[in-house]
Amino acid sequence: MVFGFGKKGPPQPDDDDNEEVELVLFQGATNGTEANLSANARLVQAGLVRAKELVSDALSRRAEMIRLEPKGKVSLATFFVDGIPYPGNRMPPQAGLAITQMIKLLAGLDIQLSDKPQSGGIKAEYSGTPYTLRVNVNPVQGGGERLVIRAENKTVKLTTPEDLGFNPQMRERIRAMAQTKSGVLLSAGPPMSGVTTMAFAMVRGIDPYLYTVYNMTDVEGRDLGHVTTFEGNPDDNWVQSVTRAKRAEADVLYVGPIRNADYCKEVFEEAEDVCMITEVAAHDAASAIVQISAWLGDPKITAKRLHGVIGQKLIRLLCRKCRQAYRPNPKLLQKVGLPPETKVLYRPPGPAPEGQPEPEPCARCGGTGYYGRTGLTEFIEMSEEMKQIVAAGGDAVAIKAQAKKEKMQSLNSDGLRLVAAGKTSLEELQRAFRSK
Ligand SMILES: [Zn+2]
């Protein structure tokens, strides 16, 4: 095994635990490039064990992202666990450089190049779990590169509509919208909030035996279930491909994300006789509607063609092992909108009472009080009243007010449901709404 020499050295006399630390296995670049280790023996010697230790440390702490960057006279690692940054190791700049170069080599990137962004990936295994490590390097001001590694656990799948918080009524509504063979259904949320996963779930929720559904975009190897990718003519532009798919009896098309005015206009124009499902980056569902109207240049088109928007935000779940129950104050319940009969809520453990020693941090969550995340969902449907508000150019506040009036599922109501069920805390709900 080429990468087999990654064990830590013999324990030093001052090591207080002689436990052998488990190290990640690197199993090759995702682009198939063979890393030439023998031609880079000095780099391997300086960087391989360090790179393994950094990645193993991060994965053992459940980090989904690692950032390593030069900061002043040191290289600084930051681990992101459930979306929250935690400071990792500080190291001399040569060590940071060796790790960055080593990861580039393993990811099949050009190690001679340091002034241009590059991206790739590494197949890896840690503690019996397969991962894909997505690697990005970007030059930073003042010299050096910023390395970002995103760890995708290949065994975690959050793709069924139920996993994503779709209730049966929501699922039924999505089906009814698809059935109209026209209009646009959107998934909206901030970057990295699972917007694409949500859009996939919407497509997958449609019955393949009743409707012809085609994927029209590059899904980068992700699994779209029963949905067939439409094989058009490679010389066709987007509108020509869509026209061909319509001739092939398409009911629903999954198309690439809306990112600009021209493409937005095409999607809404072509949605006259096929239902389009896609995504847009936006703070929430109401802002997505406002953005779409701005791109279309006419809110009446939004009102006419849009079926609805499902918004999503990620929120951390309380650690089941160390969460602490408390009796909420009735004023607080009233203020946040929880039923007055709520007897118990949960929160992460607080600091030890004065004079008492701090307890050992929880082994399951590492003392953060949270373990894993879930999505909050909101669903803004274009009811007759909502259409009128949107067509008149109503802003996000007006759209949200109408959604509330019609008791549509909101991020806040979905979040409170999780708080009442003891799955997350009020503090976390407030944090998730403060962050963009
Ligand atoms: Zn815990």
3D architecture notes:
It is a single chain. The chain is an alpha/beta fold and 436 residues long. The chain folds into two domains: 25-153, Beta-Lactamase; 168-350 and 368-434, Rossmann fold (3-Layer(aba) Sandwich). The chain has 13 helices and 16 strands. The radius of gyration is 25 Å and the shape is globular. It binds zinc ion (ZN).
Which descriptors would you attach to this protein?
2 domains, 16 strands, Rossmann fold, Beta-Lactamase, alpha/beta, 13 helices, 7-stranded mixed β-sheet
Briefly say what this structure is.
This protein is of the alpha/beta class and 436 residues long.
SSE map:
Elements (H helix, E strand, L loop, with lengths): L24 E5 L11 H20 L4 E7 L2 E8 L2 E8 L1 H14 L11 E9 L2 E11 L5 E9 L14 H12 L4 E6 L5 H10 L8 E3 L12 E2 L8 H10 L4 E3 L6 H10 L4 E7 L3 H12 L2 H7 E13 L5 E3 L3 H7 L8 E3 L22 E12 L2 H8 L4 H10 L5 H10 L5 H9 L2
Parallel strand pairs: 8-12, 8-13, 9-10, 9-11, 11-12
Antiparallel strand pairs: 1-5, 2-3, 2-7, 3-4, 5-6, 6-7, 13-16, 14-15
Helix pairs in contact: 1-2, 6-7, 7-8, 7-11, 8-10, 10-11
This protein binds zinc ion.
Zinc ion binds next to loops.
